[in-house]
Design brief:
The complex is a heterodimer of chains A (232) and B (572).
Chain A: H1 3-12, H2 18-24, H3 29-36, H4 45-56, H5 62-75, H6 89-99, H7 102-122, H8 131-141, H9 153-170, H10 173-179, H11 194-200, H12 206-209
Helix pairs in contact in A: 3-4, 6-9, 7-9
Chain B: E1 4-15, H1 19-30, E2 34-38, E3 80-81, E4 90-91, E5 101-102, H2 126-130, H3 140-154, H4 179-190, E6 196-197, H5 232-242, E7 246-250, E8 253-260, E9 266-273, E10 279-289, H6 293-301, E11 327-334, E12 354-356, E13 371-376, H7 407-415, E14 419-426, E15 435-443, E16 449-454, H8 459-478, E17 482-483, E18 532-534, H9 549-568
Parallel strand pairs in B: 1-2, 1-10, 2-7, 4-16, 10-18
Antiparallel strand pairs in B: 3-5, 6-12, 8-9, 9-10, 11-14, 11-17, 12-13, 13-14, 15-16
Helix pairs in contact in B: 1-5, 1-9, 3-9, 4-8
The chains are: A mainly alpha (232), B alpha/beta (572).
């Protein structure tokens, strides 16, 4: 299912009610956004209209998306924490290619380069040529030439793909869990855990600590004396 | 095209709703004046769930937080950026100036860094020390009572340190240092560099029943839905309205010029409505410009009349002159001791918990003014870019860089939180030769002539940046860090950012007692038009190495008191 079809199905629950869809696409960008968009993240109406337009567009062919999926899985194979599919890495890469058009040529051309290599060596496209052959190609492009600014096209292409795959994974729900990030939640921060300080051989300076917030009093309304000394 | 006149006559028309406009709104509306606030962007309330980005995860967006649409990442709460569609600005003689504009109620206060530093006694009298630039006509003692009031009204954390040029105020207690900040404290002390708790307008403790207390999400740049940080809307304009103030907000209203009568006295402003592209006028007894230093200069220069042929308030020819921004440079290091970190929530407040104020005497240095240091690092929330170059740091460990496969997962996890950086923010000398002016060749999409900029750093700023780079290296190396990238050298101006890039632009309507050498007087009142005031950073004579917001607020309050006094004397 391509992006446009998936939007239709989100909107209608099926892809059959074409007439209804026609009338809905006459709606304002805001209404469309409200109705179909799983992403609700504080856009202005103008930003929402741009993003809705991007989401409706298709850039990669189904074959390219399949190839991106295979490549992404080679770069980051699934483990017990999560997979490329769970992290929605390929849809993310497609969105970025539409959002930042400089990526389009480099990715599309790079995928073709991979196919050409695979065809030359095994008479098959990259997707069809088997993992051993795929890896033998990647082994030649996955390591930048040390201490050299200018790198060959295929090394730059692979570098871009590695960056997008890794960032796509580690900004996903499963990836953030695997990384172990603990924040983005209301809390009362009260310093570095003692065990961490102990591990590092560090300690809070008592004089410094005396200036710091007493979290038990955080809800007491601040009052000062005439010299600015906090009294509450 | 017909100009649509608003029949209501206000006491005060305020252009802009950021720090200066918000403070004037609060003080004047609380005193019972009828106030119109004219804002070029839409209405914005940090607590509105529809526009809220606070607490959003990267995967709630299809671009995972990338900055393709908002310059500081898509969750940053500024509707604007370095360039605005249909509202260009130009440059003269190939010079550089980066101009950041945010068009929304509250302006740039919705996303700013909340670093809230008073100017000290020395900051008002730089010329006395080194003969450069100009002294302010006022001194610290004039502003101190207003800094004190701003502290208590808005709230900031900090600590009493008794440092001569870093005056203490009415502080809330600061948060405890993070792990890398503890390492920085040791590193700074080893080099005899001052280090103290940072001073930021974030509520670590309740100051009233209307605003919340910090929940340590590290996202002040997304604007706090609990109103626990300073934004002009949540802390000044909404309270003024709730207090029964007569405040009319005109949003999406792009002010074009100040209108004057035959005697050159201001009668109000004209604006273009972004909703219907019609021109409207609003009249008021007093006009207060608070559109930001460069936008206010633009409005004044576009307000030509027979009484003010060079633009309103520009008989001195100095409107737009003495434009200056803070200097800025940075460096980062890989700190191996911070690899393989035990995980815990390290978000803290939206910014650093400790910082370094200027600690040296320029008499012994080859540049005239100081800088402060801001520290960054920690196990922050992943966003677009996390995982780029997943094992680039291997090169510092003698291991191979690149590859593919599950080793990359381990690399990203191992290096997470192991990079620490320092930014320097310093004082530039205000110079006549650095300016903005109207570009006669270009109008924006509202038909309003735009600005063009002429700005060059001098050797002073470049030498200061060189000193910053040496300091960064010394402190980060003290922390056990390995510097990342080549040290910025002479060829790169020692990493000195373009003028404008620090977004502390000031000085375009500078204050002074002599109408020939200044645009406004010590009460931010125009020498040429007594019912026009400027309460953004335009009146700054010099910028210090401090962030301008706290001084904008103190000056705007002081000016508002003066305006009230003049109203009582029936001078308007």
């Amino acid at each position: 299912m391509n992006r446009r079809e998936s939007i239709k199905s989100l909107l209608l629950g099926s892809v059959t009610a074409g007439a209804l869809l026609e009338s809905c696409t006459q709606a304002s960008p805001e209404q469309l956004e409200q109705a179909i968009w799983k992403y609700q993240y504080g856009r202005t109406p103008a930003e929402a209209a741009v993003d809705t337009r991007l989401l409706e567009q298709t850039f990669f062919s189904d074959a390219e998306k399949e190839q991106l999926g295979v490549l992404a899985n080679l770069i980051l194979p699934p483990n017990e924490h999560g997979s490329i599919e769970e992290a929605e890495v390929v849809p993310f890469i497609e969105f970025m290619a539409k959002d930042f058009e400089d990526f389009q040529l480099e990715i599309r051309g790079g995928l073709m380069w991979l196919n050409a290599q695979a065809n030359q060596e095994s008479g098959q496209n990259f997707v069809g040529c088997g993992e051993i052959q795929q890896k033998s190609i990647l082994d030649r492009i996955a390591y930048p030439i040390p201490d050299q600014d200018e790198q060959p096209m295929e090394v730059n292409f692979f570098n871009l793909m590695r960056n997008l795959v890794l960032t796509g994974y580690f900004t996903s729900k499963v990836g953030i869990e695997e990384l172990g990030y603990q924040g983005n939640t209301p809390n009362v921060w009260d310093g570095v855990p003692q065990e961490v300080l102990d591990d590092m051989g560090l300690a809070y300076d008592p004089e410094w600590l005396a200036k710091c917030v007493d979290q038990d009093k955080r809800n007491d309304i601040a009052q000062w004396d005439a010299d600015g000394n906090l009294m509450s | 095209m017909q100009i649509i006149e608003n029949a209501k006559k206000y006491d005060v028309v305020i252009v802009g709703s950021g720090a200066g406009g918000g403070m004037a709104t609060k003080v004047l509306a609380d005193a019972g004046l009828q106030v119109a606030v004219v804002e070029a962007g839409p209405y914005f309330d940090p607590a509105d769930p529809k526009t809220q980005t606070q607490f959003k995860w990267p995967y709630e967006s299809p671009r995972r937080g990338a900055n393709t649409k908002r310059d500081f990442g898509e969750y940053d709460m500024a509707y604007g950026g370095w360039s605005l569609e249909g509202e260009p600005y130009n440059h003269i003689d190939g010079t550089k100036f980066d101009w950041y504009r945010s068009r929304m109620l509250g302006g740039r206060t919705n996303h700013w860094g909340r670093i809230s530093l008073r100017f000290g006694p020395r900051d008002f009298k730089g010329k006395d020390r080194d003969g450069l630039g100009e002294n302010w006509p006022i001194g610290y003692e004039d502003l101190k009572p207003y800094y004190d009031k701003v502290d208590q009204l808005i709230g900031l954390f900090g600590s009493k340190e008794n440092l001569e040029n870093e005056p203490d105020g009415y502080f809330l207690p600061p948060p405890k240092p993070r792990l890398h900040e503890l390492m920085y404290i040791d590193a700074a002390r080893k080099s005899n560099v001052t280090v103290i708790p940072s001073r930021m307008s974030i509520l670590t403790k309740r100051i009233n029943k209307e605003r919340g207390v910090c929940v340590y999400c590290n996202q002040c740049n997304r604007s706090c839905a609990m109103y626990a940080d300073f934004s002009s809307g949540s802390c000044l304009i909404f309270p003024a309205q709730k207090n029964g103030g007569q405040v009319d907000l005109y949003v999406n209203a792009m002010v074009k010029n100040v209108n004057v009568d035959a005697n050159g006295k201001a009668t109000g402003v004209s604006y273009i409505s972004k909703e219907d592209r019609q021109e409207y006028s609003i009249s008021g007894k007093v006009v207060i410009l608070a559109a930001s230093a460069c936008s206010s200069a633009r409005i004044l220069l576009n307000s030509k009349s027979s009484a003010h042929p060079n633009g309103l308030g520009n008989s001195s020819g100095l409107v737009g002159r003495y434009l200056h921004d803070s200097t800025g440079a940075h460096a980062a290091a890989f700190v191996p001791a911070l690899m393989d970190r035990k995980r815990y929530n390290e978000d803290g407040v939206g910014g650093m918990h400790v910082y370094t104020p200027w600690w040296l005497d320029n008499k012994n240095l080859d540049f005239p003014r100081g800088y402060h240091l801001e520290l960054w690092g920690g196990m922050g929330m992943p966003s677009y870019g996390t995982g780029f170059g997943p094992n680039d740091l291997n090169k510092y460990l003698g291991k191979p860089v690149g590859g593919y496969g599950n080793q990359l997962r381990e690399d990203v996890k191992r290096f997470y939180g192991s990079v620490v950086g320092i930014s320097g923010r310093g004082e530039a000398i205000a110079r006549y030769e650095n300016y903005c002016e109207i570009d006669p060749t270009t109008v924006d999409q509202w038909g309003i002539p735009v600005l063009r900029f002429h700005y060059k750093w001098s050797d002073f700023e470049i030498k200061q940046a060189k000193h910053m780079q040496d300091t960064f290296e010394e402190l980060l190396t003290n922390m056990g860090g390995t510097m990342l990238g080549e040290k910025a050298g002479k060829e790169q101006n020692y990493g000195l950012y373009n003028p404008g890039a620090i977004i502390h632009e000031v000085g375009t309507t500078r204050m002074g007692d002599d109408p020939k050498t200044s645009v406004v007087n010590r009460f931010e009142q125009m020498h040429d038009a007594e019912n026009v005031f400027v309460v953004d950073a335009g009146p700054f004579v010099s910028q210090a190495d401090k962030n301008p917001t706290w001084t904008i607020l103190a000056l705007a309050w002081r000016t508002s008191d003066y305006i009230l006094n003049e109203f009582q004397k029936q001078n308007f």
